[in-house]
Automatic annotation (TrEMBL):
Keywords: ATP-binding, Nucleotide-binding, Transport
PROSITE patterns: ABC_TRANSPORTER_1, ABC_TRANSPORTER_2
Keyword ATP-binding: yes
Organism: Xaviernesmea rhizosphaerae
SUPFAM superfamilies for this protein: MOP-like, P-loop containing nucleoside triphosphate hydrolases
Domain ABC transporter: 4-234
Protein family according to the UniProt entry: Belongs to the ABC transporter superfamily.
GO MF annotation list: ATP binding
Entry protein name: ABC transporter ATP-binding protein
């Protein structure tokens, strides 16, 4: 299909930058998710790739051809917006056929390609329906078909499922992934939903304040975050501040081995890396509540200084409210000045570092 190259792209508004010096290569057939909170610059970057915004600096190349200053209609890209942007006075067929008619394709070709696009998104018998007669999920499928029918080299999706309910979002993202894999089309998908990014992406680009915090496959982003921001944004992460003295991280309630230079540090511990043991010690952590998700229980533990930790436990675990518990830690990250400086309990390690108390 196509290879996308972004070289030092920036977009300024007034004195500030929405996107600041971003460079990225997206390989042929790859699905990359741009993930970040509101205002991180992910949608602005996508709009620049599609030609709906012009960069203040930098270059955008598709298959080594500079498209930085080309308008959207002259780029080999197709864009699906969150708002669907369908014409309500036209039926489904005419909405999808519009771009082909602008390109003056023969009538027989238009019919064949529209019918193929409808079948691809699971709406084979919906061509004559008005868009107002469709559900939100069906409207989004029409918007996807309208882009795919033009056979773009690169598909751009700007939070297309944000307005849909959770169940429908999960169903449609599976369909989009299947279609993308089947067509082998290079795709960029903007979302602020971490679950969506983890489920869809070959690689995730985590953005913050217009810059890229980390670019990596989903498992690396989750298990080896480079920054404290990425660690907190992807999945659930417990953070606790410690003071490191002679290789020991000390906290009011606990200590554990932290082999970094002396000084303050932040520990990041995933809920699944915590284990609980009942304790009779008065200064032990106390269970605040336990939530049963069927496949597991998520237990909130309050430490003495008010820090709340979350532990993921087997569903049969009995952890009543108020129970005093000791914590076991099998893996953790150490951050300083927002960057990771050490990681304990590498992937696949069976070693558990037992927390000790002062």
């Amino acid at each position: 299909m196509a290879r996308l190259t972004i070289k030092g792209v920036s977009k300024s508004f007034g004195t500030g930058f929405a996107v600041n010096d971003v460079s990225l290569d997206v390989e042929d057939g790859e699905l990359v998710c741009l993930l970040g909170p509101s205002g991180s610059g992910k949608s602005t970057l996508l709009r620049m790739i599609g030609g709906f915004e012009r960069p203040s600096a930098g270059e955008i190349l598709i298959d080594a051809k500079d498209v930085t200053r080309l308008p959207p209609e002259r780029r080999p890209t197709g864009m699906v917006f969150q708002s669907h942007a369908l014409w309500t006075h036209w039926n489904v067929f005419d909405n999808i056929a519009f771009g082909l008619r602008l390109r003056r394709r023969p009538r027989a070709e238009i019919r064949e390609r529209v019918e193929q696009a409808l079948a691809m998104v699971g709406l084979a018998d919906y061509g004559q329906r008005m868009t107002t007669q469709l559900s939100g999920g069906q409207q989004q499928r029409v918007a996807l078909a309208r882009s795919l029918v033009l056979e773009p080299k690169i598909l751009l999706l700007d939070e297309p499922f944000a307005s849909l309910d959770q169940h429908l979002r999960e169903h449609l993202r599976e369909e989009v992934k299947d279609i993308q894999s089947r067509l082998g089309i290079t795709t960029l998908f903007v979302t602020h939903g971490q679950d969506e990014a983890l489920a869809l992406a070959d690689r995730i680009v985590v953005m913050r304040d217009g810059v890229m915090e980390q670019v990596a496959p989903p498992d690396v982003i989750y298990r080896a975050p480079r920054t404290e921001f990425v660690a907190g944004f992807i999945g659930s992460m417990n953070f606790i501040r410690v003071t490191v003295e002679e290789g020991i991280g000390r906290h009011e309630d606990l200590t554990l081995p932290v082999p970094v230079a002396d000084g303050p540090a932040v520990l990041g511990i995933r809920p699944e890396a915590l284990s609980l043991t009942p304790s009779e010690r008065p200064r032990a952590g106390r269970v605040h509540r336990s939530i049963d998700f069927g496949t597991h229980k998520l237990v909130d533990i309050d430490l003495l200084d008010g820090t709340r930790m979350k532990a993921m436990m087997p569903p049969e675990t009995q952890v009543p409210r108020g129970l005093r518990v000791e914590l076991g830690v099998s893996a953790f990250h150490v951050f300083r000045d927002g960057a990771q400086v050490y990681q304990a309990g590498a992937r696949g390690s069976e070693t558990e570092r037992r927390v000790s108390h002062a």
